[in-house]
Amino acid sequence: MVVEYATQGRIAIITLNRPEARNAVNAEVAQGIESSLDRFENDPELWVAILTANGKAFCAGADLKEIAAGNSDKLFTAKGGFAGICKRERAKPLIAAIAGSALAGGTEVALSCDMIICSTETNFGLPEVKRSLVAGAGGLFRLPRAVGMATALEAILTGDPLPAQRAYELGMVNKVVAPDAVMAEAMKLAERINANAPLAVQASRAVATRALHDDDATLWKASDAGFAKLASTEDFKEGPRAFIEKRAPNWKGR
Fold this sequence. Notes:
Elements: E1 3-8, E2 11-16, H1 27-42, E3 48-53, E4 57-59, H2 64-68, E5 76-77, E6 81-82, E7 94-98, E8 101-103, H3 105-111, E9 115-119, E10 123-125, H4 139-147, H5 149-158, E11 162-163, H6 164-169, E12 175-177, H7 182-194, H8 198-208, H9 216-230, H10 234-244
Parallel strand pairs: 2-3, 3-7, 4-8, 7-9, 8-10, 9-12
Antiparallel strand pairs: 1-2, 5-6, 10-11
Helix pairs in contact: 3-4, 4-5, 8-9
């Protein structure tokens, strides 16, 4: 399978598995990512997912052989857009665990995730202009939000790579580690998130991910709505009860 799906505790692990093609996105990859995200989102027992890849590259973007064959439309899905993820609406946290390079559409896939753990060897970048192309899967507006306009425009207009350490310094990446430590670090981050009430995590994520493009009035309403929805859940009662009883909370996700 070109996209593998596994679980470990309450964590879903989605792995791109086309190493011979640098995990470039073809129709099968796009459909595989979308179906994996469907499985994750629809399973109440899973609270965080990690998107990673086998091989030396995380993702080389669109499979140019597919584009040359006139199959570029097959690299998109109705629900998720490019690679089945770049336009995807999600409720649960998703971490990108990147050991190799993530260029072009690979950067756009990474930016579609909520958090990024990458290696010292990782390069990001949108080199489309070098081939008279346009990065059309969100990179042109997500990269400026992630690293600031000046650095983003330099990367976008030159097509030159953005090294992992620089991406970390500018706030795009959560942590940079040795290549063989990427997955372990991503798992640690997932477990730290999973120590918290899952519905509260989802409600908080829903507001925070809109912070850079919605106005304050809209965000106040969203915050109030999220709190009100949580107030009717079992976990809303469990949190204070566990604090009073001086024990670890037993989250149910309901």
